[in-house]
Amino acid sequence: MSRIGKRPVVIPGGVSAEISNGVLSVKGPKGTLTLTLRDEISYTVDGDSILVKPANDSKSARAFWGMQRTMVDNLVTGVTAGYTKVLEITGVGYRANAQGKNLKLQLGYSHDVDFAVPEGIEVKTPDNTTIEISGIDKQQVGQVAAEIRRWRKPEPYKGKGIKYRGEYIFRKEGKKK
Q1: What's the helix, strand, coil split of the chain in %, to 5?
Q2: Under DSSP, is residue 14 helix (H, G, I), strand (E, B) or coil?
Q3: Class of residue 143 by CB neighbours under 10 A (exposed 0-12, middle 13-18, buried 19+)
Q4: How many CA atoms lie within 13 A of 79 on its CB side?
Q5: What are the angstrom distances between the C-alpha of 83 and each of 24, 59, 77, 120, 133?
């Protein structure tokens, strides 16, 4: 039995949820998010909570149960608080600068990297070595952060590159003399 799936998703004040044509729509102060519903799972909007239960006793229904409840919870959290990922840049001459809907990265290449920020995502650079990515869709925020990080992953010798805030980079020893 799923321990996560048993808990109802609480809908806070100012947020509304409705199910129509196999789509769950959650509307809140930050925007609207939708989720396509699975046939193996039954969803019920009950006043101030959303209940997620398996529709039958099949193995696939039990496998999707906890994940679908978490995805519904992510919708509610996204439209109320939103999500933020923070990237830190380490390295001599490595810089980032947000310019409107573009992010200009200087990462030691012979050219600057211009990253086009997708719709629904906001990118801020409080200083030259910090990038804050925020939005209401958890998956999209994580995907944009991963795409930016992919330009220069942290290397294990000096730790230069782009890393998530709080990420530990395992450092290797250099050559012994």
Answers
A1: 20, 40, 40
A2: coil
A3: middle
A4: 22
A5: 20, 32, 8, 12, 8
DSSP letter assigned to residue 8: P
Give the gyration radius of the chain's Cα atoms. Answer: 21
Cα distances (Å, whole numbers) of residue 90 to 42, 97, 99, 100:
47, 14, 21, 23
Q: How remote is the C-alpha of 37 from its chain's centroid? A: 20
Query: CA separation (Å) from 79 to 20, 43, 93?
Result: 19, 19, 37
**Cα separation of 92 and 38, whole Å?**
49
Amino acid at 24: L
The answer to whether the pTM exceeds 0.85 is yes
Distance CA 106, CA 113 (A): 6
List pLDDT tens digits, range 116-166: 999 999 999 999 999 999 999 999 999 999 999 999 999 999 889 999 999
Give the span between the Cα atoms of 17 and 32, in whole angstroms: 10
Any idea which residue has 């100012």 for tokens?
Answer: 14
pLDDT in tens, 64-99: 999 999 999 999 999 999 999 999 999 999 999 999
| Backbone phi, psi, residue 62, to 5° | -70, -30
- Interatomic CA distance for residues 117 and 73, integer angstroms: 25
